[in-house]
Write a structure and sequence with these properties.
Number of domains: 3
Radius of gyration: 22 Å
Cofactor: FAD
Distance between the termini: 46 Å
Strand order of the largest sheet: 3-2-1-7-19
GO molecular function, one term: oxidoreductase activity
Keywords: FAD, Flavoprotein
Protein name: Ferredoxin reductase
Helix content: 10-25%
Strand content: 25-35%
CATH superfamily of the largest domain: FAD/NAD(P)-binding domain
Structural class: alpha/beta
Shape: globular
InterPro entries: FAD-bd_OxRdtase, FAD/NAD-bd_sf, FAD/NAD-binding_dom
CATH architecture of the largest domain: 3-Layer(bba) Sandwich
CATH class of the largest domain: Alpha Beta
Length: about 375
Amino acid sequence: MNSTQHILILGTGAAGAAAARSLAGREDLRVTLVGETGVTPYTRMLIKGIAFGVTPPDMIKIPLPEVDLVSDTVVEVDTGSQEVQLASGRRLNYDAVIVATGSIARPLPANITGGSAFFETGRVSALHSIEDALHIRDLLAGLGRPARVAIYGGGIIAAESASSLREAGHSVMLINRSAIPGVGAFGAPVAERLAVEHSSRVLTRFGRTIQHIDVSDGGVAITLDNDSSVTADLLLLALGTAAAAPAPWTDGIEVDDRLRAKTAHVYAAGGVATHHDDALGTWRIDHWDDASAQGAHAAQVALHELGLADDPGAYLPRSPYMAMVYGQMITGVGYLGDADTHVEDGEEFVVRHEQAGTVIGVTGIDAVGTVYQWGQRLHGVRA
């Protein structure tokens, strides 16, 4: 056994921190965790409390395990020489590398006119980082009055933001290209109920897309595809995420059912990973608990392939997630994908998502306990 084998973990978010925790304290291994230069690791799922509440940034820091920590942004992974190039010029070698560099906010479509300068005004923003959250908080506070906020999107960030902003007394308009927003995030049965809630509580423009944006000191003028216009103080972009991978990858990293990339000794976990397996096909999940589970699993696979642990088997998503929307707790476990949906009988609203008769995910409204009980039963229970 080689006691000097070295695992590099790139990224200090959910997946990277979980991988490091899984490996910390081993005497037969050297572990190095690499984060972005000058960035304090934080829990991204909690930044809404900064943007729309009173949560201070220090409260959402991630406690990291006792491993070697390098604060130096990754530039490139040289898979041939098994080295990682850092922004400072430093190079780190590895016996195995776990890429957990997460995601970025998906940008506006290129066909929206108005020029990229509207981002510089601060009136158009995503909610993906602490910097985004602090900017939104300061902008809303600086108005000195209830804000007019247009939200473009329909998933978890869009739904929770609409709910939080409305509760705080702001005027909200939710814009989404689909007539039923959030199907990909919540599944059709839950999304249909949420669409009714949205329509009764905030202004909505469903089945519409943004075509043009004009920004001035007075706000954002938004032109929709039916030539109607919307004026807001802030346009909040909630269009989902895209993988943020270092070179040589560009659109994320493809992994197999054990989170292994196509190149030997490379693994990927969390928002940067696109999965290909026989059970679920091609899929990607970018939420906190699943990223943590992927990071821990990738670490065990890497250990196994270094000869230091047993094979943990294939990774299948079972992690829970939740969103509080208009006072209702939306919960889910597993993966929804392109699955058949079946609403269960009973007082609680619970939906099974099935693929070829096997339950791969469960969602519900105000049914936390029932939904979470499905976690370990997924992927092996025939309906």
